[in-house]
């Protein structure tokens, strides 16, 4: 098999210099890419943090509105219950101040009367329309 002669020393040195320059370019390209990557990651981190902050603010606003809606529904439920009680009272057409309940009265109920009055006066719809004496 034929043997090729070794390259001269000056050719080896030139090749070595070329490799070093090439390695230097690769290093600077790599460093540039690393800086660009770091800048991108930093920008991405800032954007994500901003998005999470906005989401948190939206969540708080939604929670406040849901709680207000729940309170409104509870109030409407109480008013419907009071209207239902008021509808069950039989009132005399000529005497709107006097309402007669279908519940029979006896002396044992007298002890519960203040409790019943306070329940009926709990809402402003019934205030003034309930007698405080049995």
Overall radius of gyration: 44 Å
Low-confidence region ranges = 123-128, 130-134
Helix content: 55-70%
Beta-strand level of the residues, as a percent range? under 5%
Individual helix count: 2
Global geometry: rod-shaped
Alpha-beta content class: mainly alpha
Order of strands, widest sheet: 1-2
The mean pLDDT is 71
Report how far apart the termini are: 130 Å
Overall structural domain count: 2
InterPro entries: GP41-like, Retroviral_env_glycoprotein
GO molecular function: structural molecule activity
Subcellular location: Virion
Main location: virion
Write the layout of secondary structure elements.
Elements: H1 9-88, E1 90-91, E2 99-100, H2 113-120
Antiparallel strand pairs: 1-2
Pfam families: GP41 (PF00517)
InterPro entries: GP41-like, Retroviral_env_glycoprotein
Subcellular location: Virion
């Amino acid at each position: 098999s034929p043997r090729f002669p070794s390259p001269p020393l000056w050719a080896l040195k030139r090749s070595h210099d070329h490799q070093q320059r090439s390695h230097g370019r690769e290093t600077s390209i790599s460093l540039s890419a690393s800086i660009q990557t770091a800048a991108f990651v930093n920008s991405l981190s800032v954007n994500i943090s901003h998005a999470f902050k906005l989401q948190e603010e939206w969540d708080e606003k939604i929670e406040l509105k849901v709680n207000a809606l729940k309170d409104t529904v509870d109030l409407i439920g109480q008013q419907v219950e009071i209207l239902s009680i008021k509808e069950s009272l039989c009132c005399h057409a000529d005497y709107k101040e006097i309402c007669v309940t279908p519940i029979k009265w006896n002396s044992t109920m007298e002890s519960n009367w203040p409790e019943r009055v306070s329940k009926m006066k709990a809402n402003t719809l019934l205030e003034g329309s309930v007698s405080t004496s049995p």
